[in-house]
Amino acid sequence: MSSKNSHEYDLCVAVNYYSPYVSGLTEVARVLAEGLAGRGWRVAVVAVRHDAALPLRESRNGVDVYRSPVVASVGRGPVSPGFPSLVRRIARRSRVVNLHLPMLEGALITALPLRVPVVTTYHIDLWLPPTLVTRAAMAAVRVSSRVTLRRSDAVVVNSDDQAQYSELWSILRSSQRSAIPAPCLDRRGGEATYRETAGPHIGFLGRIVPDKGLDYLVAAFAEIPDPEARLLVGGDYLTVAGGSVIDRIRTAAERDPRIRILGLLRGRQINDFYASIDAFALPSIAESFGIAQAEAMMCGIPSVTTDLPGGRYPVLATGMGRVVQPRDPAGLRVALLDVLGWDADTRREGAKRALEEFGVDGCLDRYAALFRLHGARANALM
Protein backbone atom coordinates (compact mmCIF):
# COMPACT_ATOMS: atom_id res chain seq x y z
CA MET A 1 0.00 0.00 0.00
CA SER A 2 1.03 3.58 -0.45
CA SER A 3 2.81 5.13 2.49
CA LYS A 4 1.35 8.57 1.69
CA ASN A 5 -1.33 8.57 4.37
CA SER A 6 -1.69 9.31 8.06
CA HIS A 7 -1.65 5.67 9.11
CA GLU A 8 1.37 4.08 10.74
CA TYR A 9 0.44 0.62 9.46
CA ASP A 10 -1.18 -0.66 6.29
CA LEU A 11 -2.46 -3.72 8.11
CA CYS A 12 -3.09 -4.79 11.70
CA VAL A 13 -3.45 -8.56 12.20
CA ALA A 14 -5.13 -9.60 15.45
CA VAL A 15 -4.75 -13.21 16.57
CA ASN A 16 -4.70 -14.86 20.00
CA TYR A 17 -1.55 -16.95 19.47
CA TYR A 18 1.32 -15.88 17.24
CA SER A 19 4.78 -17.12 16.35
CA PRO A 20 6.77 -18.78 17.85
CA TYR A 21 3.60 -20.67 18.79
CA VAL A 22 2.72 -23.15 16.03
CA SER A 23 -0.77 -24.04 14.82
CA GLY A 24 -2.53 -23.90 11.48
CA LEU A 25 -4.39 -20.73 12.42
CA THR A 26 -1.20 -19.11 13.71
CA GLU A 27 0.66 -20.07 10.53
CA VAL A 28 -1.98 -18.41 8.34
CA ALA A 29 -1.59 -15.19 10.32
CA ARG A 30 2.22 -15.41 10.24
CA VAL A 31 2.57 -16.20 6.53
CA LEU A 32 0.07 -13.47 5.70
CA ALA A 33 1.79 -10.85 7.87
CA GLU A 34 5.34 -11.72 6.83
CA GLY A 35 4.38 -12.19 3.19
CA LEU A 36 2.79 -8.76 2.91
CA ALA A 37 5.64 -7.18 4.87
CA GLY A 38 7.98 -8.72 2.30
CA ARG A 39 5.99 -6.90 -0.39
CA GLY A 40 6.56 -3.55 1.29
CA TRP A 41 3.46 -3.35 3.48
CA ARG A 42 3.76 -1.93 6.99
CA VAL A 43 2.28 -4.70 9.13
CA ALA A 44 1.56 -4.98 12.85
CA VAL A 45 0.45 -8.13 14.65
CA VAL A 46 -1.33 -7.99 18.00
CA ALA A 47 -1.39 -11.22 20.02
CA VAL A 48 -1.28 -12.44 23.59
CA ARG A 49 2.04 -13.20 25.25
CA HIS A 50 1.48 -16.95 25.47
CA ASP A 51 5.02 -17.42 26.84
CA ALA A 52 6.13 -15.04 29.62
CA ALA A 53 9.67 -15.13 28.21
CA LEU A 54 8.55 -13.35 25.05
CA PRO A 55 8.87 -9.55 24.82
CA LEU A 56 5.79 -7.35 24.86
CA ARG A 57 6.98 -5.76 21.65
CA GLU A 58 9.45 -6.88 19.02
CA SER A 59 10.07 -7.01 15.28
CA ARG A 60 9.90 -10.48 13.70
CA ASN A 61 10.80 -10.84 10.03
CA GLY A 62 9.72 -7.31 9.15
CA VAL A 63 6.53 -7.38 11.25
CA ASP A 64 5.96 -5.29 14.38
CA VAL A 65 4.57 -7.66 17.02
CA TYR A 66 2.66 -6.35 20.05
CA ARG A 67 1.77 -8.78 22.85
CA SER A 68 -0.64 -8.46 25.75
CA PRO A 69 0.22 -10.17 29.07
CA VAL A 70 -1.71 -13.35 29.95
CA VAL A 71 -3.00 -13.72 33.50
CA ALA A 72 -4.57 -17.19 33.18
CA SER A 73 -5.88 -19.70 30.65
CA VAL A 74 -9.12 -21.67 30.33
CA GLY A 75 -8.60 -24.74 28.18
CA ARG A 76 -6.97 -23.41 25.03
CA GLY A 77 -8.14 -19.87 25.69
CA PRO A 78 -5.65 -17.36 27.08
CA VAL A 79 -7.06 -14.80 29.53
CA SER A 80 -5.53 -11.44 28.68
CA PRO A 81 -7.65 -8.51 29.90
CA GLY A 82 -5.60 -5.95 27.99
CA PHE A 83 -5.81 -7.72 24.62
CA PRO A 84 -9.00 -6.08 23.23
CA SER A 85 -7.86 -2.55 24.06
CA LEU A 86 -4.40 -3.22 22.61
CA VAL A 87 -5.97 -4.48 19.37
CA ARG A 88 -8.19 -1.41 19.16
CA ARG A 89 -5.27 0.93 19.81
CA ILE A 90 -3.07 -0.55 17.07
CA ALA A 91 -6.04 -0.96 14.70
CA ARG A 92 -6.76 2.77 14.87
CA ARG A 93 -3.22 3.38 13.63
CA SER A 94 -3.82 1.09 10.64
CA ARG A 95 -5.70 1.21 7.35
CA VAL A 96 -7.30 -2.22 7.80
CA VAL A 97 -7.60 -4.69 10.68
CA ASN A 98 -7.71 -8.44 10.07
CA LEU A 99 -9.21 -10.46 12.94
CA HIS A 100 -8.59 -14.22 13.10
CA LEU A 101 -11.51 -16.16 14.59
CA PRO A 102 -12.43 -18.12 16.67
CA MET A 103 -11.51 -15.52 19.26
CA LEU A 104 -13.46 -14.89 22.45
CA GLU A 105 -12.51 -11.20 22.46
CA GLY A 106 -13.85 -10.45 18.97
CA ALA A 107 -17.10 -8.97 20.22
CA LEU A 108 -15.26 -6.73 22.69
CA ILE A 109 -12.82 -5.55 20.02
CA THR A 110 -15.66 -4.56 17.70
CA ALA A 111 -18.09 -3.39 20.42
CA LEU A 112 -17.51 0.27 19.57
CA PRO A 113 -16.81 1.51 16.04
CA LEU A 114 -13.12 1.18 15.19
CA ARG A 115 -13.31 3.70 12.32
CA VAL A 116 -11.16 1.26 10.36
CA PRO A 117 -12.39 -1.55 8.05
CA VAL A 118 -12.63 -4.95 9.73
CA VAL A 119 -11.81 -7.99 7.58
CA THR A 120 -12.37 -11.15 9.60
CA THR A 121 -10.84 -14.51 8.73
CA TYR A 122 -13.13 -17.21 10.12
CA HIS A 123 -11.05 -20.37 10.36
CA ILE A 124 -13.26 -22.94 12.07
CA ASP A 125 -16.08 -23.54 14.52
CA LEU A 126 -14.30 -23.97 17.83
CA TRP A 127 -14.03 -27.59 18.99
CA LEU A 128 -12.76 -28.65 22.40
CA PRO A 129 -12.87 -32.05 24.14
CA PRO A 130 -16.33 -31.98 25.77
CA THR A 131 -16.55 -31.08 29.46
CA LEU A 132 -18.81 -28.70 31.35
CA VAL A 133 -16.17 -25.98 31.20
CA THR A 134 -15.33 -26.43 27.52
CA ARG A 135 -19.01 -26.50 26.52
CA ALA A 136 -19.44 -23.13 28.22
CA ALA A 137 -16.30 -21.82 26.53
CA MET A 138 -17.46 -22.98 23.10
CA ALA A 139 -20.86 -21.37 23.62
CA ALA A 140 -19.25 -18.06 24.63
CA VAL A 141 -16.92 -18.09 21.61
CA ARG A 142 -19.85 -18.91 19.33
CA VAL A 143 -21.78 -15.86 20.57
CA SER A 144 -18.70 -13.64 20.21
CA SER A 145 -18.08 -14.92 16.68
CA ARG A 146 -21.67 -14.19 15.65
CA VAL A 147 -21.36 -10.61 16.87
CA THR A 148 -17.94 -10.09 15.29
CA LEU A 149 -18.97 -11.48 11.91
CA ARG A 150 -22.03 -9.22 11.81
CA ARG A 151 -19.82 -6.18 12.52
CA SER A 152 -17.20 -7.10 9.91
CA ASP A 153 -16.92 -5.30 6.59
CA ALA A 154 -15.74 -8.51 4.91
CA VAL A 155 -15.23 -12.15 5.88
CA VAL A 156 -12.67 -14.65 4.59
CA VAL A 157 -13.15 -18.41 4.86
CA ASN A 158 -10.74 -21.14 3.76
CA SER A 159 -13.39 -22.62 1.47
CA ASP A 160 -17.11 -22.41 0.81
CA ASP A 161 -17.26 -26.08 1.83
CA GLN A 162 -16.09 -25.02 5.28
CA ALA A 163 -18.52 -22.09 5.43
CA GLN A 164 -21.65 -23.88 4.25
CA TYR A 165 -21.43 -26.50 6.99
CA SER A 166 -20.47 -24.07 9.75
CA GLU A 167 -22.80 -23.59 12.69
CA LEU A 168 -22.61 -19.89 11.76
CA TRP A 169 -23.63 -20.40 8.12
CA SER A 170 -26.73 -18.21 8.50
CA ILE A 171 -24.40 -15.27 9.15
CA LEU A 172 -21.63 -16.28 6.77
CA ARG A 173 -24.14 -16.73 3.94
CA SER A 174 -25.21 -13.08 4.07
CA SER A 175 -21.75 -11.64 4.73
CA GLN A 176 -19.38 -10.05 2.23
CA ARG A 177 -17.63 -13.44 2.01
CA SER A 178 -14.52 -14.46 0.09
CA ALA A 179 -13.16 -18.01 -0.04
CA ILE A 180 -9.36 -17.79 0.07
CA PRO A 181 -7.38 -20.95 0.91
CA ALA A 182 -4.83 -20.80 3.67
CA PRO A 183 -1.51 -19.68 2.11
CA CYS A 184 0.78 -22.71 1.91
CA LEU A 185 4.56 -22.65 1.56
CA ASP A 186 6.39 -24.53 -1.20
CA ARG A 187 8.27 -27.23 0.71
CA ARG A 188 9.79 -29.02 -2.28
CA GLY A 189 13.50 -29.78 -2.46
CA GLY A 190 14.03 -31.44 0.91
CA GLU A 191 16.28 -34.41 1.64
CA ALA A 192 14.88 -37.74 2.86
CA THR A 193 16.73 -37.56 6.17
CA TYR A 194 13.89 -39.20 8.13
CA ARG A 195 13.60 -42.19 5.82
CA GLU A 196 14.87 -45.44 7.35
CA THR A 197 13.92 -48.29 5.00
CA ALA A 198 12.73 -49.04 1.49
CA GLY A 199 9.25 -49.73 2.88
CA PRO A 200 6.28 -47.32 2.79
CA HIS A 201 6.61 -44.25 5.01
CA ILE A 202 3.41 -42.59 6.21
CA GLY A 203 3.59 -39.14 7.80
CA PHE A 204 1.54 -36.89 10.05
CA LEU A 205 2.52 -33.31 10.83
CA GLY A 206 0.55 -31.09 13.19
CA ARG A 207 -0.21 -30.42 16.83
CA ILE A 208 -0.33 -33.62 18.88
CA VAL A 209 -3.80 -32.90 20.27
CA PRO A 210 -7.14 -34.76 20.56
CA ASP A 211 -8.82 -33.18 17.53
CA LYS A 212 -6.20 -34.53 15.13
CA GLY A 213 -7.45 -38.11 15.63
CA LEU A 214 -4.00 -39.67 15.96
CA ASP A 215 -5.34 -42.67 17.89
CA TYR A 216 -7.15 -43.75 14.72
CA LEU A 217 -4.03 -43.36 12.61
CA VAL A 218 -2.00 -45.45 15.04
CA ALA A 219 -4.69 -48.15 14.95
CA ALA A 220 -4.76 -48.10 11.14
CA PHE A 221 -0.97 -48.33 10.89
CA ALA A 222 -0.89 -51.27 13.31
CA GLU A 223 -2.87 -53.28 10.72
CA ILE A 224 -0.24 -52.74 8.02
CA PRO A 225 1.97 -55.79 8.54
CA ASP A 226 5.04 -54.70 6.53
CA PRO A 227 8.02 -54.67 8.96
CA GLU A 228 9.73 -52.10 6.72
CA ALA A 229 6.82 -49.64 7.00
CA ARG A 230 7.24 -46.53 9.15
CA LEU A 231 4.86 -44.00 10.69
CA LEU A 232 6.50 -40.60 11.18
CA VAL A 233 4.65 -38.35 13.64
CA GLY A 234 5.87 -34.77 13.62
CA GLY A 235 4.53 -31.81 15.55
CA ASP A 236 4.46 -29.87 18.79
CA TYR A 237 3.33 -31.51 22.01
CA LEU A 238 5.18 -29.42 24.59
CA THR A 239 3.54 -26.00 24.25
CA VAL A 240 0.14 -26.77 22.69
CA ALA A 241 -2.80 -24.94 24.24
CA GLY A 242 -5.29 -27.24 25.94
CA GLY A 243 -2.97 -30.22 26.39
CA SER A 244 -1.45 -32.96 24.25
CA VAL A 245 -2.07 -36.67 23.66
CA ILE A 246 1.63 -37.45 23.38
CA ASP A 247 1.46 -40.04 26.20
CA ARG A 248 -0.91 -42.18 24.13
CA ILE A 249 1.34 -41.89 21.07
CA ARG A 250 4.38 -42.83 23.13
CA THR A 251 2.56 -45.87 24.46
CA ALA A 252 1.70 -46.89 20.90
CA ALA A 253 5.34 -46.42 19.86
CA GLU A 254 6.41 -48.71 22.69
CA ARG A 255 4.10 -51.40 21.32
CA ASP A 256 5.11 -50.82 17.68
CA PRO A 257 8.81 -50.00 17.11
CA ARG A 258 8.02 -48.85 13.56
CA ILE A 259 6.51 -45.58 14.88
CA ARG A 260 8.78 -42.54 15.11
CA ILE A 261 7.92 -39.44 17.16
CA LEU A 262 9.85 -36.55 15.60
CA GLY A 263 8.65 -33.64 17.74
CA LEU A 264 8.30 -30.07 16.52
CA LEU A 265 9.80 -29.51 13.05
CA ARG A 266 10.73 -26.11 11.65
CA GLY A 267 12.14 -24.66 8.45
CA ARG A 268 14.16 -27.11 6.36
CA GLN A 269 13.21 -29.95 8.71
CA ILE A 270 9.66 -29.73 7.35
CA ASN A 271 10.95 -29.94 3.76
CA ASP A 272 12.98 -33.01 4.72
CA PHE A 273 9.94 -34.57 6.40
CA TYR A 274 7.87 -34.34 3.20
CA ALA A 275 10.79 -35.70 1.17
CA SER A 276 10.87 -38.72 3.51
CA ILE A 277 7.25 -39.89 3.20
CA ASP A 278 5.12 -41.62 0.57
CA ALA A 279 1.68 -40.70 1.95
CA PHE A 280 0.33 -38.08 4.34
CA ALA A 281 -2.41 -38.79 6.88
CA LEU A 282 -4.73 -36.23 8.48
CA PRO A 283 -7.22 -38.32 10.52
CA SER A 284 -8.81 -35.31 12.26
CA ILE A 285 -12.12 -35.33 14.07
CA ALA A 286 -12.25 -31.50 13.83
CA GLU A 287 -10.53 -29.66 10.96
CA SER A 288 -11.02 -26.59 8.75
CA PHE A 289 -8.31 -27.01 6.10
CA GLY A 290 -5.05 -28.70 7.06
CA ILE A 291 -2.09 -26.66 5.83
CA ALA A 292 0.32 -29.58 6.27
CA GLN A 293 -1.74 -31.82 3.99
CA ALA A 294 -1.85 -29.13 1.28
CA GLU A 295 1.92 -28.62 1.54
CA ALA A 296 2.41 -32.39 1.27
CA MET A 297 0.28 -32.42 -1.89
CA MET A 298 2.38 -29.61 -3.35
CA CYS A 299 5.39 -31.91 -2.84
CA GLY A 300 3.69 -34.76 -4.70
CA ILE A 301 2.56 -36.60 -1.57
CA PRO A 302 -1.12 -37.69 -1.60
CA SER A 303 -3.14 -37.09 1.55
CA VAL A 304 -5.72 -39.29 3.24
CA THR A 305 -8.03 -37.12 5.29
CA THR A 306 -11.41 -37.34 6.97
CA ASP A 307 -14.76 -36.32 5.56
CA LEU A 308 -15.07 -33.04 7.43
CA PRO A 309 -16.26 -29.77 5.87
CA GLY A 310 -13.22 -27.67 5.00
CA GLY A 311 -10.76 -30.36 6.05
CA ARG A 312 -11.66 -32.45 3.02
CA TYR A 313 -11.50 -29.47 0.66
CA PRO A 314 -7.80 -29.75 -0.36
CA VAL A 315 -8.36 -33.35 -1.48
CA LEU A 316 -11.65 -32.61 -3.22
CA ALA A 317 -10.23 -29.54 -4.98
CA THR A 318 -7.19 -31.34 -6.38
CA GLY A 319 -7.99 -35.06 -6.36
CA MET A 320 -4.65 -35.50 -4.60
CA GLY A 321 -5.67 -38.11 -2.06
CA ARG A 322 -8.60 -39.94 -0.54
CA VAL A 323 -11.36 -38.98 1.90
CA VAL A 324 -12.52 -41.41 4.61
CA GLN A 325 -14.98 -41.27 7.46
CA PRO A 326 -13.73 -39.90 10.81
CA ARG A 327 -12.87 -42.41 13.54
CA ASP A 328 -12.52 -45.26 11.03
CA PRO A 329 -9.12 -46.99 11.31
CA ALA A 330 -10.07 -49.71 8.80
CA GLY A 331 -11.11 -47.19 6.17
CA LEU A 332 -8.02 -45.14 6.86
CA ARG A 333 -5.76 -48.17 6.36
CA VAL A 334 -7.42 -49.11 3.04
CA ALA A 335 -7.11 -45.55 1.71
CA LEU A 336 -3.46 -45.27 2.77
CA LEU A 337 -2.59 -48.53 1.02
CA ASP A 338 -4.39 -47.22 -2.07
CA VAL A 339 -2.48 -43.94 -2.36
CA LEU A 340 0.82 -45.63 -1.50
CA GLY A 341 0.44 -47.39 -4.84
CA TRP A 342 0.04 -44.22 -6.90
CA ASP A 343 2.56 -43.82 -9.70
CA ALA A 344 4.90 -40.88 -10.28
CA ASP A 345 2.80 -39.32 -13.06
CA THR A 346 -0.33 -39.26 -10.88
CA ARG A 347 1.60 -37.66 -8.05
CA ARG A 348 3.22 -35.10 -10.35
CA GLU A 349 -0.12 -34.00 -11.83
CA GLY A 350 -1.66 -33.76 -8.37
CA ALA A 351 1.24 -31.64 -7.15
CA LYS A 352 0.76 -29.27 -10.06
CA ARG A 353 -2.92 -28.76 -9.21
CA ALA A 354 -2.10 -28.24 -5.52
CA LEU A 355 0.58 -25.64 -6.30
CA GLU A 356 -1.86 -23.70 -8.45
CA GLU A 357 -4.62 -23.85 -5.84
CA PHE A 358 -2.74 -23.29 -2.58
CA GLY A 359 0.56 -21.55 -3.43
CA VAL A 360 1.35 -18.69 -1.08
CA ASP A 361 1.72 -15.99 -3.75
CA GLY A 362 -1.75 -16.47 -5.17
CA CYS A 363 -3.35 -16.47 -1.74
CA LEU A 364 -1.44 -13.33 -0.73
CA ASP A 365 -2.55 -11.62 -3.95
CA ARG A 366 -6.19 -12.26 -3.08
CA TYR A 367 -5.84 -11.10 0.53
CA ALA A 368 -3.95 -7.99 -0.57
CA ALA A 369 -6.64 -7.10 -3.11
CA LEU A 370 -9.33 -7.47 -0.43
CA PHE A 371 -7.45 -5.30 2.07
CA ARG A 372 -6.80 -2.64 -0.59
CA LEU A 373 -10.47 -2.61 -1.60
CA HIS A 374 -11.77 -2.00 1.89
CA GLY A 375 -8.98 0.38 2.80
CA ALA A 376 -9.81 2.46 -0.28
CA ARG A 377 -13.54 2.43 0.50
CA ALA A 378 -12.87 3.65 4.03
CA ASN A 379 -10.67 6.48 2.79
CA ALA A 380 -13.32 7.54 0.30
CA LEU A 381 -15.86 7.89 3.13
CA MET A 382 -13.58 9.99 5.34
UniProtKB/TrEMBL annotation:
<keyword id="KW-0808">Transferase</keyword>
<dbReference type="InterPro" id="IPR028098">
    <property type="entry name" value="Glyco_trans_4-like_N"/>
</dbReference>
<dbReference type="Pfam" id="PF13579">
    <property type="entry name" value="Glyco_trans_4_4"/>
</dbReference>
<dbReference type="GO" id="GO:0016757">
    <property type="term" value="F:glycosyltransferase activity"/>
</dbReference>
<dbReference type="InterPro" id="IPR050194">
    <property type="entry name" value="Glycosyltransferase_grp1"/>
</dbReference>
<protein>
    <submittedName>
        <fullName>Glycosyltransferase involved in cell wall bisynthesis</fullName>
    </submittedName>
</protein>
<feature type="domain" description="Glycosyltransferase subfamily 4-like N-terminal">
    <location>
        <begin position="24"/>
        <end position="167"/>
    </location>
</feature>
<keyword id="KW-0328">Glycosyltransferase</keyword>
<dbReference type="Pfam" id="PF13692">
    <property type="entry name" value="Glyco_trans_1_4"/>
</dbReference>
<dbReference type="GO" id="GO:1901137">
    <property type="term" value="P:carbohydrate derivative biosynthetic process"/>
</dbReference>
